[in-house]
Design brief:
By secondary structure, this protein is of the alpha/beta class. The chain has one domain: Rossmann fold, CATH 3.40.50.150. It is built from eight helices and eleven strands. The strands form two sheets. Strands 6-7-5-4-8-9-11-10 form an eight-stranded mixed beta sheet. Strands 1-2-3 form a three-stranded antiparallel beta sheet. Strand 4, helix 4 and strand 5 form a beta-alpha-beta unit.
């Protein structure tokens, strides 16, 4: 009942979403309106599908500010030195990419969606060969983009001091989540930090699988969960969403 009331509330707040919802009912296996689609067992988003709570550019900008602040804060609390190499899994069109790269000497951003990756390259620079060896200068930030999936990252073992996923693992289905987390552990350098912002409670649907804190702790073993905090959102977030607080938490894992 609470999910139904939340859906009704969201429809009243966002009537522009109703046609997308109806389209999703008609074609559930393909895409939910223009925001997301399923292809090759992947959940892929259109540019407007990222940070979907934002109704205006002002809200989008505020949402980005709160997310970046939350990410930087947890990194600053757990990293004594600037990471030599950082990895972003599921970078999309690069919404968070430069902000992560600003806190790293060299940043690699991986994304399975070719179209999203092409948009990222246009916005932030070009790759030239092996993303782990070459760098791309976007302003004062070194970024390399690579196409790849969370379950088979195109990077070597023990290569990154910081690994970030931001609302990515929640879109990996149960039969593949173990492989994805195993890959994050594989590429993490000794003493490195994994930061995840993922849904840990309902609501769920056919492209989001919430997992409890206990489940994530088990998946990341032998890494330990060293931090768990609320995801920061813009002040008007609850006006656009069906719940008053985010279902995601920001988690940090590292060797015990």
């Amino acid at each position: 009942m609470s999910n139904l009331l939340g859906l009704l509330r969201r429809g009243l707040n966002r009537p522009d979403k109703i046609p997308r919802y109806l389209w999703g009912l008609l074609v559930p296996s393909d895409r939910w309106g223009p925001e997301w689609r399923r292809r090759d067992d992947l959940v892929l988003f259109e540019p407007g599908g990222f940070a979907a709570s934002a109704r205006t550019r002002a809200e989008f900008a505020s949402n980005l500010f709160h997310e970046v602040t939350g990410l930087w804060t947890i990194c600053d609390d757990h990293l004594e030195e600037t990471p030599t190499r950082s990895l972003e899994v599921g970078c999309g069109y690069g919404r968070l990419t430069p902000w992560i790269a600003m806190r790293s000497e060299r940043h690699v951003a991986v994304e399975p969606d070719r179209r999203a990756l092409e948009r990222a390259v246009v916005q932030y620079g070009r790759t030239d060969g092996d993303p782990t060896g070459g760098t791309v200068t976007a302003g004062d930030v070194n970024v390399a983009f690579a196409r790849g999936r969370a379950e088979s990252l195109p990077v070597p073992d023990d290569a990154f001091d910081l690994v970030v996923t931001w609302t990515v693992l929640q879109h990996v289905p149960p039969e593949r989540i173990g492989e994805a987390v195993s890959e994050l552990r594989r590429v993490l350098a000794p003493g490195g930090l994994v930061v995840c912002c993922e849904r840990v409670r309902p609501p769920a649907d056919d492209h989001i699988w919430p997992r409890s804190l206990e489940t994530y702790a088990e998946l990341f073993e032998p890494l330990e969960c060293v931090d768990d905090r609320r995801r920061s959102v813009e002040p008007t977030w609850s006006d656009a969403m069906s719940t008053d607080r985010p279902a995601e938490r920001v988690l940090a894992f590292r060797e015990g």
